[in-house]
Amino acid sequence: MLSTTTFPSSPAPCYQPGYPSSSSLRNLDPLLPHSSTPLAPVRKFASSTPDITPLDRSTSSPTSTARTASYSVQKQNITVDPSHFKKIRLLGKGDVGSVYLVQNEETKQLYALKVLSKKEMVKRNKIKRVKVEQAILSMAHHPFIVPLHHSFQNKDYLFFCLEYCVGGEFFRALQQRPGKVLKEHEARFYAAEVVAALEYLHLHGLIYRDLKPENILLHQSGHLMLSDFDLSVQSPTIGNPTIVRSAFPSLFSHLPLLDTKICSNVRTNSFVGTQEYLAPEVIQGNGHSSTVDWWTLGILLYEMIYGFTPFNGANRNDTFDRIMTQKLDFPHFGSNPYFQGPEISHQGKSIMRKLLDKNENKRLGARAGASQVKQHAFFKPINFALLRHMRPPIMPAQKAKPIDAVHFAHVKESVSFDLHGSLTGDMDMDDDDNGGDSHDSDREDLVDPFADFGSVTLIRPKH
Ligand code: ADE
C-alpha cells in the first residue's frame, strides 16, 4: 500500500519537550481518527535522504541468483512492460504514485502494480529510497514478505509488479472488526508472523523501520505480508548470526539463542517512521539500530489488542512527549463494549512492556534479536516453524472473486492512467507536503537518475 509520506524540513527534527510545532509541521499533523479517512492516514515521517546505499545485487546473467544460493531468488531477464497488463482498478494512492490491480493479458494472472512517477520522486528526493526498495524486494524471499514478480520502467514511471494480496490492507481488516480490535490469541498469531518476517530482514542486515497496520497486507491464504520497504535501511556489512547463551536460564530460555541482532549491525540517524510508532531513540535523534523494529512490534501488538496506539497525543509534540516519558498503561476492557473475552493475559502485558522499554538496550530483542523475542512466554503457544501452515484468524472470503477484493479503500481515480500508452492527463499529485530538499527536475532530466533501476523478473514458487 502506498501511504502519503511527509518530509519534515531537514535537519531531522529532534525531540524537544514542550517545543511548539512549526505551522508547516502542524499542517501535516496526522491525527485524524482512522475511520474518518478514506485513505490511510498520514502518520509517516522520512528524512529527505536515505542513509543507505542501494544494495547492489544486480546481475547480468540471464538466470542467476541474488545473494547466495541458499536463500536465493532466481532472476530472469524476461522483458516485461506495461503493455503486458490490463488495468482492472485502482487499489491505493500515495504521494509519488498509485497501486493498481492489473491482469497479465496472456496468463490472466492478477498482480498489484505499483506505479511510481519519476518526476515526483525526483521532486521529493526519493530516488535512493525507491532503489533501496527495489533491491530489497528483488532479494527477499519469505512467506511473510510481499513477493515482487517484475520491476521495470518506462520514460516517466517505475513499476513494481507485486503479488496481489486479495485480503487487502490489514489496517482496513482491523477497522472492520467489532471494536477495531483482535482477540489476544489472534493478535499473537499476526505478531508471530511479523517476528518471523523481521527476523528474516535482520538476518539480511536490514532494519524495516516502518512497521504499522498500513504496511501489512493480507494474502489470499489469510497470512500477512509486509510491504513498503522505502524506509528500510541496510547495514553496510552483514554479520553472521552467532549463538548466545541465556544470562538467566529459566523455563523458557534455557536453550542457546541465535543472535540475529548482530547481522544488522548498523546505527543510523535518520528521522524516519510513523509518528505514533516512532521509538524514543529515533525521536531523540542520536542514532538507532534494529531494536526500533521491536519497539514498533510492541506498538502494533498494542494497537491490534486495544484498537489504538499507546502514546497518541493531541498533536505531534504531545505524542513525542508521551513516547519519551509516559508510562505504558493498559486500558480495562470493561470500557470497550465490543470486548467480551477475558482481560489481556499477564504474558501479553509483559511482552508489550518489554518491547516498549524506552531504553533500547534493555528492550526485548536488544540482546539476541528475534530469537529472544520468540522465546517470550507470550509466544509459547506458537510453533514458529509451522506458522505458515496454521489457519489465520481472518480469512479473505474464499467465495469472492479475487477481483472483488475486500479490505480496500474505495479509491477514486481522478485522472486515468493508461498502461498501454502514456497518461491520459497527469497523475493526481496534489498534496504539497514536500519539506525535503527540493530538486530542480529539469536539471535531473540531463542525467537519468533511474538508469540503474534494474528491470528484473523473479521466478517465484506459487504461494
Ligand atoms: N496495495 C499495495 N500493494 C498491494 C498488493 N500487493 N496487493 C494488494 N494491494 C496492495
From TrEMBL:
<feature type="compositionally biased region" description="Basic and acidic residues">
    <location>
        <begin position="436"/>
        <end position="446"/>
    </location>
</feature>
<dbReference type="GO" id="GO:0004674">
    <property type="term" value="F:protein serine/threonine kinase activity"/>
</dbReference>
<keyword id="KW-0723">Serine/threonine-protein kinase</keyword>
<keyword id="KW-0067">ATP-binding</keyword>
<keyword id="KW-0418">Kinase</keyword>
<feature type="region of interest" description="Disordered">
    <location>
        <begin position="422"/>
        <end position="446"/>
    </location>
</feature>
<comment type="similarity">
    <text>Belongs to the protein kinase superfamily. AGC Ser/Thr protein kinase family.</text>
</comment>
<dbReference type="InterPro" id="IPR011009">
    <property type="entry name" value="Kinase-like_dom_sf"/>
</dbReference>
<feature type="region of interest" description="Disordered">
    <location>
        <begin position="39"/>
        <end position="70"/>
    </location>
</feature>
<feature type="region of interest" description="Disordered">
    <location>
        <begin position="1"/>
        <end position="20"/>
    </location>
</feature>
<feature type="compositionally biased region" description="Low complexity">
    <location>
        <begin position="57"/>
        <end position="70"/>
    </location>
</feature>
<keyword id="KW-0547">Nucleotide-binding</keyword>
<dbReference type="GO" id="GO:0005524">
    <property type="term" value="F:ATP binding"/>
</dbReference>
<protein>
    <recommendedName>
        <fullName>non-specific serine/threonine protein kinase</fullName>
        <ecNumber>2.7.11.1</ecNumber>
    </recommendedName>
</protein>
<dbReference type="InterPro" id="IPR000719">
    <property type="entry name" value="Prot_kinase_dom"/>
</dbReference>
<feature type="domain" description="Protein kinase">
    <location>
        <begin position="85"/>
        <end position="379"/>
    </location>
</feature>
<dbReference type="InterPro" id="IPR008271">
    <property type="entry name" value="Ser/Thr_kinase_AS"/>
</dbReference>
<keyword id="KW-0808">Transferase</keyword>
<dbReference type="Pfam" id="PF00069">
    <property type="entry name" value="Pkinase"/>
</dbReference>
